[in-house]
Fold these 3 entries.
Entry 1:
Amino acid sequence: MAAADELTFHEFEEATNLLAETPDAATTSRSNQPTSQGHVAVAMGSGDSYGAEDEVEEESDKASLLQEKQQQQQQPGFWTFSYYQSFFDVDTSQVLDRIKGSLLPRPGHNFVRHYLRNQPDLYGPFWICATLAFVLAVTGNLTLVLAQRRDPSIHYSPQFHKVTVAGISIYCYAWLVPLALWGFLRWRKGVRERVGPYTFLETVCVYGYSLFVFIPMVVLWLIPVPWLQWLFGALALGLSAAGLVFTLWPVVREDTRLVAAALLSTVVLLHALLAMGCKLYFFQSLPPEHVAPPHQAASLPTNIPLSPTLPRSMAPS
């Protein structure tokens, strides 16, 4: 009897300690054992399982909301350097892959969907425009140097202003034309709900990478053969314009035929004007220096008397 009482006392003591640690726990007596032994079982929240699940879900919702709030607080403002740093967060393999995609356009192969993958960058377009402007100005001056070696009568002087003209022209084209295109597509989205334009950053990225093909074209323009220069220009223009058309076609095909044809024609026309402007301005030859003809006869001084030329019969007496 004493042993049974001591065992019961220890069981009650364990139950009391467990209840002190978990106040929400419920105590139940084991009905399948004799009551004389007084075994007591503790049910760890078996009746409050529904409430526990609600508490877990509420805690997970609070955690997710807190994480979203922290992400919003960590996002820098547009006036900070960290905001624009994300636009240049791209590695070399991605840039080379996007350059390859711009050089080899294929029908049905969208540049935005296959190469940008919702991660447009400004690193590639920025350096492509800078390289194109620099190469354009340098090759334009080299063309005049080579022309002077072939024809010494051509007068050449370094034209450093071409670097400024090339930079302003290329960067204005690479930013203003995509801005106008993006604004027009946004307006057409309001007119026709099925038209879904790209973002402004994606449009700038597409135009920036499309200009890469003009860099080798400008270098090949150093060959002093006019018909070959125009052939290289037409080939580069065709590749670049085809990449733009294939990229914009999934966006404008849901619009009317007139609007789609006019938009794509304008894109190709502006690209052609850029290529022709570069050819005619930066690769024009200077005219030969005009050399003044030598004087046939020197003017006589006024103090030297002239010899009489009148006939003797008409001379005064």
Entry 2:
Amino acid sequence: MNSSAGAPDLICELDSVQGIVDALTSVRWKRHQDAVVELSEHGMVIIVEETSCVQAKVYLQRELFVKYDYGAQGRPRFGVSLGLFVDCLNTFSFPGRSTILEIRYPGPDMQLMLRAVDSPDACIYAEIRTRIPETISWDYNFEPAGSTPLTFTVKSAALKEAIDDLEWPGSSIQIKLQPVPPSVIFRGEGHGDLQIDFNSYANTDLLIAFTCDRPISHRYKYKFLRATTSNIPSSVIKDNRGSKLTIGRGGMLKVQHLVSVAKPTVPHTHVDSAGYQQPSRIAYIEFFVKPEVEEEDTADDS
């Protein structure tokens, strides 16, 4: 696996631990959850999934790191407990001050190694046991449903609130897009019906963008749809960059969030190699949710 004897596949340094914690927390919808970490010269991808119905990916591009020394051949993968990874990262997140976290893989026993490299008072160090990763159970290759994208962008806070309001245990949620008038409808069925409309003509501040050339409708299991927003940290909701939802071929739903990975605004001696502080950086999060059933009005998409 290693590019040379004894040399790690990756040594990288991060100056915004809290931003990475926020990104990984967003895809942590269960207490005990395994993740697959894939390394490449372009950065890290963390993948989690459940029962072949929902999959999430966090993209940490190399530009998010102040140092990224990649020496592996190919793309090494390893399995890790997502909860343990987040908890360990949290120990390196100190309110009120910035810290530089070094991440190294693999250690002598194939562990993931974390170390604070700029702590003058103490040596803060953690090792996380890794394992041979399980095979990702389904292909996340996302294909458009037609020549015109079926997509809309809504404020993250509004999306989370809408999905929370639609809670019917064990039920499914219908998502319907219609071009005239341009609108998105979320509809839940349980002991009664609840419908939430996002109308672009009524509130342009809420529905930021909308593209749809024909009516389309699909149903999604509530618990999997809820996983796409249930654990987004309040700091991300407050940032409110907007969440983009796209319906692809066969009704596959893609939900994309952006999480700011910026340096804490506190004095710190570290600057990047170019001699200036980098602007706000973004971690990309994608969820893929399979539809529960095929709707008649989407038969021509298959």
Entry 3:
Amino acid sequence: MRNMENFFKRRFNVPKRTSELIALVAISTTLFLFLHTRDLNTRLKEMEVRLHPDELLSSNQLISGDSGPAHHPSSGVRAMMKILQSAGEVTTTLQPFQLNNTRKAMQEVLFFNRVPKVGSQTFMELLRRLSMINKFGFHQDRVQRVETIRLAPEDQAVLAAMVSSYDTPSVYIKHVCFTNFSEFGLPEPIYVNLVRDPVERVISWYYYVRAPWYYVERKIAFPDIPLPDPKWLKKDFETCVLSGDRECRYMKGETREGIGDHRRQSMFFCGHEEACTPFNTEGALQRAKRAVEQHYSVVGVLEDLNSTFTVLENYVPRFFKGAKDVYWNEINQYNTINRNLFKPPVSEEIKDIVRKNFTKEIEFYQFCKQRLHNQLAALKLPEQ
């Protein structure tokens, strides 16, 4: 029995230094688990906001489905602020400098690589008027016979060099994919753009290219352009979707070259690379998100113009000072730029069919909307 007791004493006789080491490892492990759990909790909160942004940040809840002056824009922005602040510490601790890429710009040139059918024509008119008020140069791309949005590297370099050659301050506007000036050894400009609900946008594009006045304008500019097939002109969007027409199938991974893939707005942020061409893919989505986060000062949202103008006026004041006043009191009341009266209503059932194939586009749109709302929250604007 005594031999057995001696055995156990020898078996569990742990040196003092070893005991200290075990205690240190236990404390370190506990600390790591605490930090990791806290990090996971933070990420879960962020994911909840991203997965349910409309429940938290719906512009319809904030501005009664209309961002016009009749609903008092300042009250809409205040309502937005209250909802964002109630979302938790993640929004109230934001600071404007953390979300403002304007400070990264190396030249006082605004580059608006406008997405089609997101209100960019009206936005361009706004910039033209602001150029006279805020004293900056206004430049836009000429109308082209074939509009190519993805450029070869040498053409990207030419574009970047041309934009960088303008006297500052200036703005340049063109339908083109995101072009990284720094890749060509040129100073980075101030990037801005707009986005729109992707399904509403693709419907708008569908009827825009079939509008009679669109072909009249094209025919005047380029007389030798042939007129389209009347059957194609008369084809409505609902029939196009239900019949499985290639124009309205929107298949994952599909690529369309030539004039440019106007089905999706994320391509205008993804860039010119081949990886940006497949439709509705994770890789193209992540590239587009990264470009917005790293380069764009502001990406506005057509459905929430009050927040868009408030953020632009505060984050890019050199160019957008007075934007809200000019838009609501001048442009919106009297201007009918690109308002297509030939676009019939499309049922929600058809829109739901299209949404199933636009999952990445919808995610990108929600991502841009969330970023805009975070930029607004970071301003911590007063009640008045």
